[in-house]
Amino acid sequence: MKIPSLLRSAAAIALAVSTALPAAAQQADRGLAGSYLAARVASFNNDFRAAADYYTRALVRDRDNALLMENAILAFAGLADFNAAVPIARQMVDTVGESQIARLVLMSDQLSRQQYQEVLDGLAEGQTVGPLVDGLVRAWSELALGNMDNAVESFDAAADDTGLKAFGLYHKALAFAVAGDFEASDEIFSGREAGPLRLTRRGVIAHVQVLSQLGRNADAIELMEKAFTRDLDPELAAIRDQLEADETLAFDVIRSADDGLAEVFLSVAGALNGETSDSYTLLYSRSSEYLRPDDNTEALLLSAQLLDQMEQYELAVRTYDRVQRSDPAFHAAEMGRAEALRKDDKVEAATEVLSQLAKARPDILGVHIALGDVLRGQEKWKESEEAYDKAIALFEEDLETHWIVYYARGITRERLKTWDLAETDFRKALELRPNQPQVLNYLGYSYVEMGENLDEALDMIERAVAERPDSGHITDSLGWVLYRLGRYEEAVSHMERATELLPVDPIVNDHLGDVYWAVGRQLEAQFQWKRALSFDPEKEDADRIRRKLEKGLDAVLSEEGAEPLAVVNDEG
Q: Which domains does the chain have, with CATH numbers?
């Protein structure tokens, strides 16, 4: 769906004043212009709370301004405050005319009140949200009123549109299942009615439940094996266990027509995700939450993920918090909450969330990996290694996707100075994914720094560069191994390329200075070392750079017990 032009114009204005929010806030009480400016900046920054406040203030002074109303609706919907959004949407439709955003909010409100006939009458009068929403809402509203034949006709009408066919068929299959006609539902899910459907995870679970209701647990297990990896999350593992125990699964993805209506907005949000602005997608996921407030984990997780992407971490945390502890997806919500806390610089809180989750659910692989990652980010190497140990202990067999866990544990072990163990992990990671550039680079660079296996290190880093030619760190590694091999002239172009890719990295600039010194370009070397110092290197690195500027690289190497470059070069 097209992003409203008002959003684009708001972004354009806000971009010009993106650093002016504090000043704008100070001016907000001085009249319409101040509130309007502050609201625009808040909208651009996805600060829904501030935007709602300032747009409301502006509307007090300019009640019939369509731009103000539409943005206020978006802000309140972003906060999941439909009680505040609905009156503004009603005012907008009554005073300035049609608005897709206002109509969506008003339709959601009517559906939450089970005013199905009013919604159908409004659609008949042209009160539209969009072809997909209109068609599916019409179908589910008919079903809610007990008009199954009309509902099927509406689902079929939606499926007649080539671009909307999959949505129409998916919802029709759900509707048949809600009505208890599991044979007809399976006919659609299996593709026997109108060709195969490409199902989401949620769609696969719905089909699995339908098959179980038909007494076809073996077929349901086969479907799961085709659709999902062998590392099943707790929800999928519980479903598989029930099927293997020959239990009949309840059909509860959708329990009623009301749930089906919530599913409409969730389906649209899923389709929009990544295709349009996150704030516009959030409007649909929040609408789905509004229509199914008691049991709508998928919508909550999507809303929280969108808020995280918009850097609204506090709102994301609050949304993740709404997932019930008893929900099979609770662990996913907690992992998302921990990630949002980490991004919000609340690392200790994030660590605590994951630590408690790891104790409560020690059987979940991803929890230990996430805990290991957050501990590694804090340089708590031993604790991080222990978390990765627990993750690896859960591997039933080695899969290609496990390379990253061995790689992460290898980093912690390298920092713990247990090199033999670290090297084993890096080698294992490469066994699982032979050309993984991060692993090739890390292991190869480690060899270079230790002065070991330099020929193999060069081969590894050249392979890494071939995989990631635009990676400044990997290109730096290639220049550095050539330098350590005494191939100084060859190193120059690679180190220069690395500084182009990472112009403010102190280590890369320092390395280029060393390479310049090695080929006799001493003034340029000193310039690069001074640049490196300006980019705030670690204290130990900074001290060494100052010694190079004072005495020259050869003298520093001699002090460190290494041979001067000229000697190395003569030998090369």
A: 1-101 (1.25.40)
Instruction: Tell me, rounded to whole angstroms, the distance of Cα 211 from its chain centroid.
Output: 32
Beta carbons of 37 and 24 less than 8 angstroms apart: yes
Burial code (b: 16+ CB inside 10 Å, e: under 16) for 261-295 equals bbbbbbbbbbbbbeeebbbbbbbbbbbbbbbbeee
Under DSSP, is residue 393 helix (H, G, I), strand (E, B) or coil?
A: helix
For the entire predicted model, the pTM comes to 0.83
What DSSP assignment string belongs to 546-561?
Answer: HHHHHH-HHHHHHHTT
Structure-derived torsion over alpha carbons of residues 203, 204, 205, 209, reported in degrees to the nearest 10: 100
**Cα dihedral value 262, 265, 268, 274, nearest 10:** -110
Distance CA(58)–CA(41), nearest Å, equals 14
C-alpha 165/C-alpha 124 separation (Å) is: 22
The tokens for 20 are 């002016």
Record the tokens describing residue 506, joined without a space: 């102190």
If you search the block for the tokens 């102190």, which residue do you land on?
506
Q: What is the pLDDT of residue 465?
A: 96
**457-508 residue pLDDT tens:** 999 999 999 999 999 999 999 999 999 999 999 999 999 999 999 999 999 9
CA dist 88 and 290 (Å) reads: 17
- Taking each helix axis from N to C terminus, what angle separates 506-518 and 539-551, rounded to the nearest 10 degrees? 30
Torsion, Cα 311 355 327 205, to 10 degrees, reads 80
Structure tokens at 42: 């808040």
pLDDT (tens digit, 9 = 90+) per residue, 271-323? 999 999 999 999 999 999 999 998 899 999 999 999 999 999 999 999 999 99
Mapping DSSP onto H, E and C, the string for 478-516 reads: HHHHHHHCCCHHHHHHHHHHHHHHCCCCHHHHHHHHHHH
Band of residue 98 on the pLDDT scale cut at 50, 70, 90: confident
Give the N- to C-terminal CA distance of the chain in Å, as an integer.
64
The residues, any chain, with a CB within 8 Å of residue 431's CB and separated by 6 or more, are none
In contact, 210 and 182? CB cutoff 8 Å: yes
- Rounded-to-integer distance, Cα 317 and Cα 329, Å: 15
